[in-house]
Design brief:
heterotrimer; A mainly alpha (206); B mainly alpha (646); C alpha+beta (291); A: 206 residues; B: two-stranded antiparallel sheet; 21 helices; disordered N terminus
Chain lengths: 206, 646, 291
């Protein structure tokens, strides 16, 4: 129950670097939390595989859709790389709209591919044993986290387009983007790492 | 709410009138859209359920109920205005950190980024849900006055037990981090806000929604699993289970974000001069708790999500007959569950060690060791989870290891006792109400800790596991420890938060009633456990009847003592409203150097910290902070873009 | 407010207070430790119906005897402090600014470490040897702590289901009984499993507790030493009638047991033929719902 600002007192303004530092720290902490979510799935994967309860860890007909798996991974890695290029362009003071648009396109493509795979590309259902459970649970959870990445990239693109339009100077436009760019990069790299892990465990290893 | 000495705040006069307030983003629309979202998504879920399962779905269909909860959450957040900012960011508008602070008293009913407003909202919410959980406990003790299920039926009894456990666990995890952490951390480190003010408000409103969702389990047939939600019982249970899964998952998200926010705040927003060895020990308690919250809550979230999939789309994570394993749930749940136990202990350590020096009038004895002890507890708590599974048949070969790690935790907790004892040595103790609660914390936590030694010892655990001994043990540590410390903390800091005194006499009546009846309630339950009474039963061996009646009567008196607390709050804070003054306890801590209540900007200038706030009795000690000098002195520590490690 | 309360600095008062606290603590120990061991001790469950419950009883007495001095030390210290170091009257006086003493801290850490290691060793010793055989706790399908000649132990399968216990005897033609009767002075190997949700088989006086988990064969060893009855309960929440999942078992002589099992084989012959073949785990269809 705090009193509101009394007239006559003008609190000294905040250091503008603070928000930027916060975002990067927050992104790292969020990435570590996300890592623990997927650690739970990694544990489930190896635990159920080791137990092989009732011999139903992975019946022979349960095979993942390899084509979709590779395509999704490529989209995610491509989006991450495009975003990294956009960020470097930003740091060098160049325009970044094209690269950001590419990153957004690839990240949306990953979501669309995953949805198509669910709806038509699967040879097994969620009730197909331990592996099938982990596969569906893991990929759907990753999809949810990846939507966060899509949101971040879209926000960056929108901000870049707007500031390119409205900002008086290029410096101003860069300043509006830089802190979010660093934080988004941390998140995208974490997602990409988990995407590689997903592909290795769920698609590559038999 | 303004004090008499400060001029009338301008923001309140600008606040829209009631009629204008009706249209906008606030609690009313949150409730309306949540209800709408529930029914729309429930209807949708019924359709999907019909499609997937090829059978007639009823209103007990899990897909419909869970989708309904998802819709309710979205509606709730839209109504409260949480989507406005992300949408404006998606349209490329600039970032901002302030929202909803200009609405006068209405800001308590909406998304507001002032950390002090959020803390008060948390305080009210936690107190309300704590009351709900407490009422459940009173009813449970009512049933247990009879050795057979007579007063409440067996199914309702299980729902009560489950609601009580889950509600208390959910609310006490948020119980210190939410109200006291959000209020005090920025004030104690000399900041004006938390690192992520919108996230802070989000965690609160998610907690509120989760509490009501959990209560809604009653209308969905209840749930029979207790707070541990053991699969495969949870997979078979009726739709009330979905309320447990969804609300607990919301709390998991909320807890994780609270922790993230507090860590980021402490890392980047410390005032100049507040080096790591000057941070108040309460803030260290919040930081260590936050580390546990950020890393453990995600595992809970994943486990609950797996259980929800088992119940809806027929995956078999936890069903042994189809390639799953119940042990998977035990491992994931307790990997969260044991750090959770220390999420319920570390804030208590922080509060007690913060308050003790003020009323002992002595410096904290061994600041560094105390901080090391808290980190030791936090670290070890990730390595002990299988001690909940000593007789489950999982990894029996690792039992000596988990026995050892569990007993190791008594070293860092022993440190907390040592610090307390050192601080009391030749002190000038004043027995104020907060101090009484702190001393009771040591009394209760000692019994809780020593009973933990029996439980950690495998041969002894064979008898005590799953019995009332366990139940008494964790009530001694959580209620006797955390709740006593938290109430002490509320007595101590409420005058700062509201600006009004609490009544000391009523406080002492509350304390003695609560202390005596707490011990009379829970100490006999150690005996009940050793004499063979399992947990969570509505019927028990008739030879234990007398013991249980005694415990029930004590428990009701314990409940009455909390009514005294409530009466004290209502009477002094709402009716009497006697100004407390800026520093009634003569504390040296930073927050007490500010006016009560704290102005919305906290500090006119960011202060420069001179020392840790425990310099009692040191002649010529400088004031804890210098409020007049400009912030960011040229030679002072600066915030680096990389994250501000000094 | 801040008159420095250093009335008599130096070693004098510290030593005096410390000596007083030690004396009170020592006297309290002399009084209470024997009371805990010899007066309270014999009443600490779970008594002596089997070798395992006797062990657990002894462990509980030893732990209580160890916990008492710790409890008394903290209580005496706090009691002394709040009595002697209290500030009377309304005035607020600062105490002496004593900083943390590393020597005391290190001593404290060393002492607690020694206690903890001793406890861990004691707990492990109470668990692993063949005479303890896992102290009556469930050890999963491949137990580490086994009694001598574990193969010749009497095998009893304990099957939990909502909300009753049944017992199957693989050494006696796989007959299944609703009662548990055990011979005295013989090693028993319980194989605990479940047909639906998780239960926990708690034979209270025997000092046996082993979770019954679907898909798992949880082995627990016990050696009954008295002719008496014992209570069986469920110690893991298993749904609606969890509190009613009780039955009573009986420890009898070897000859009485032989007679009983022979009669049971005859009486349940028809049922035995209908049962699925004996197995360490069973996987019934998981499609039924229960409260």
């Amino acid at each position: 129950m705090s009193a509101s600002a009394a007239p006559g007192i003008v609190p000294e303004p905040e250091d503008s670097r603070l928000a930027a530092a916060n975002l990067v720290v927050g992104a790292r902490l969020f990435a570590s939390a996300m890592a623990f979510v997927f650690m739970a799935f990694v544990f489930a994967y190896f635990y159920l595989k080791a137990v092989d309860s009732n011999g139903l860890w992975r019946p022979s007909h349960v095979t993942p859709p390899q084509g979709y798996g590779i395509a999704i991974l490529v989209c995610i890695l491509g989006a991450t790389a495009a975003f990294e290029l956009a960020r470097r362009g930003l740091a060098a003071g160049a325009g970044s709209v094209a690269m950001l648009a590419l990153a957004l396109g690839l990240s949306v493509a990953a979501v669309v591919l995953q949805l198509i795979a669910y709806l038509g590309g699967m040879s097994f259902g969620a009730d197909g044993g331990g592996y099938a459970s982990v596969f569906y649970g893991w990929t759907a959870m990753f999809l949810a986290f990846w939507l966060g990445a899509v949101y971040s990239v879209e926000t960056m693109l929108a901000t870049a387009m707007r500031s390119a339009r409205e900002a008086a100077a290029a410096d101003e436009a860069v300043e509006a983007l830089q802190p979010s760019a660093d934080a988004t990069m941390v998140y995208l790299y974490s997602c990409a790492g988990i995407a590689v892990l997903t592909w290795v465990l769920l698609y590559l290893i038999k | 709410m303004s004090t008499t000495e400060s001029p009338p705040p301008t923001a309140i006069t600008k606040a829209p009138r009631f009629r204008e307030q009706l249209i906008g983003f606030h609690l009313l629309w949150g409730v309306v859209l949540a209800a709408l979202g529930y029914f729309v998504c429930h209807w949708l879920g019924t359709k999907i359920g019909n499609h997937i399962k090829g059978q007639t779905a009823t209103d007990q269909d899990d897909i419909a109920v869970l989708l309904g909860f998802l819709g309710a959450t979205l509606g709730w957040l839209i109504g409260l205005g949480f989507f406005n900012y992300p949408l404006s960011r998606m349209m490329g508008r600039p970032a901002s950190l302030i929202e909803g602070e200009e609405y006068g008293v209405w800001r308590y009913f909406r998304l507001c980024t002032d950390h002090k407003v959020v803390a008060v909202q948390y305080f009210v919410a936690v107190l309300f849900f704590f009351g709900v959980g407490g009422l459940n406990a009173m009813l449970i003790r009512g049933e247990l006055t009879s050795d057979n299920a007579t007063f409440i039926q067996a199914g309702n009894y299980l729902t009560l037990v489950s609601l009580h456990g889950t509600m208390m666990l959910m609310m006490m995890s948020a119980g210190v981090l939410g109200p006291l952490g959000n209020y005090l951390v920025p004030l104690m480190i000399g900041a004006r806000r938390m690192a992520f003010p919108r996230v802070e408000s989000l965690t609160l409103w998610l907690t509120v929604l989760a509490g009501f969702m959990l209560i809604s389990a009653i209308f969905l047939g209840g749930f029979p699993t207790g707070w541990t939600g053991y699969a495969p019982l949870s997979v078979e249970a009726r739709a009330g289970m979905d309320a447990y899964l969804f609300s607990f998952a919301l709390i998991g998200i909320s807890l994780c974000l609270v922790g993230l926010n507090i860590i980021a705040t402490v890392m980047t927003m410390r005032a100049p001069g507040l080096y790591w060895n000057r941070i108040p020990v309460f803030v260290w308690g919040m930081v260590t708790t936050s580390v546990l919250a950020v890393l453990a809550a995600p595992v809970l979230f994943a486990a609950l999500y797996m259980a929800a999939l088992d119940r809806t789309v027929e995956t078999t994570f936890f069903l042994a007959s189809n390639g799953g394993s119940p042990f998977l749930w035990y491992n994931l749940f307790w990997f969260f569950g044991h750090p959770e136990v220390y999420i319920l202990a570390l804030p208590g350590f922080g509060i007690v060690l913060e308050i003790l020096p003020v009323f002992a009038r002595k410096p904290l004895w061994g600041y560094r060791v105390a901080v090391a002890g808290m980190f030791g507890v936090a670290l070890l708590s990730f390595m002990v989870w299988q001690h909940h599974l000593f007789v489950s048949g999982i990894n029996a070969n690792l039992r000596p290891f988990y026995m050892f790690t569990t007993e190791l935790i008594s070293i860092p907790t022993g440190i907390i006792f040592l610090i307390g004892m050192g601080t009391l040595w030749r002190a000038r103790i004043r027995f104020t109400v907060p101090m009484l609660f702190c001393l009771a914390f040591f009394f209760n936590f000692l019994i809780g800790g020593l009973s933990g030694v029996y439980l950690s010892d495998v041969p002894s655990n064979v008898t005590t596991h799953g019995s009332y001994f366990v139940m008494a043990h964790f009530h001694y540590t959580i209620m006797g420890g955390l709740v006593f410390a938290t109430i002490g903390g509320f007595y101590y800091w409420l005058p700062k938060i509201t600006g009004f005194k609490l009544n000391e006499t009523l406080g002492k009546i509350h304390f003695w009633m609560m202390f005596i009846f707490f011990n009379l309630t829970f100490f006999p339950l150690f005996a009940a456990g050793l004499l063979g009474m399992p947990r969570r039963v509505s019927s028990y061996n008739p030879s234990l009847h007398g013991l249980n009646v005694f415990v029930s009567i004590s428990a009701w008196c314990l409940g009455l003592s909390l009514l005294v607390f409530l009466a004290n709050i209502v009477w002094t804070q709402l009716l009497l409203r006697e100004p407390a003054g800026p520093n009634p306890w003569l504390s040296k801590s930073l927050e007490w150097q500010l006016p009560s209540p704290v102005p919305s900007y906290n500090f006119e200038r960011i202060p420069v910290i001179n020392s840790a706030p425990y310099s009692y009795g040191i002649p010529d000690a400088p004031p804890v902070a210098d409020f007049g000098t400009p912030a960011r002195l040229p030679g002072g520590p600066a915030i680096t873009p990389e994250g501000g490690v000094l | 407010m801040s008159a420095v309360g250093a009335m008599t600095d130096g070693a004098g008062p510290d030593v005096r207070h410390g000596r007083r606290i030690l004396i009170i603590w020592a006297v309290a120990n002399v009084i209470f430790v024997p009371i805990v061991i010899w007066v309270l001790g014999p009443h600490i469950p779970p008594y002596d119906a089997s070798q395992q419950s006797t062990d657990q009883h002894n462990v509980n007495v030893v732990l209580s005897a160890l916990a008492t001095p710790v409890l008394l030390m903290i209580w005496v210290y706090f009691g002394y402090s709040i009595t002697v170091f209290r500030q009377r009257g309304p005035e607020v006086v600062d105490g002496p600014p004593i900083e943390g003493d590393p020597r005391i801290q290190v001593t404290w850490l060393a002492a607690t470490t020694v206690i903890v290691i001793a406890l861990a060793v004691y707990g492990t010793v109470g668990l692993l040897p063949s005479s303890a055989a896992g102290a009556g706790g469930g050890q999963g399908p491949n137990p580490l702590s086994k009694p001598p000649n574990a193969a010749s132990a009497l095998q009893v399968q304990v099957i939990g289901q909502q909300w009753l216990w049944t017992f199957r005897w693989p050494g006696y033609g796989g007959v299944q009984t609703p009662y548990l009767v055990l011979p005295v002075n013989r090693w028993i190997a319980f194989h605990v499993t479940s047909l639906d949700v998780s239960h926990s088989f708690w034979a209270y006086e025997l000092g046996v507790k082993a979770d019954a988990i679907p898909g798992n064969d949880n082995v627990a060893f016990v050696r009954p030493t008295q002719l008496r009855s014992f209570q069986i309960r469920c110690a893991e929440l298993c749904g609606l009638w969890h509190g009613h999942m009780n039955t009573t078992g009986q420890i009898v002589s070897q000859s009485a047991f032989d007679t009983w099992i022979a009669q049971a084989r005859v009486r349940y012959q028809g049922v035995t033929q209908q049962l699925p073949p004996y197995s360490h785990v069973y996987y019934p269809a998981p499609d039924q719902r229960a409260g």
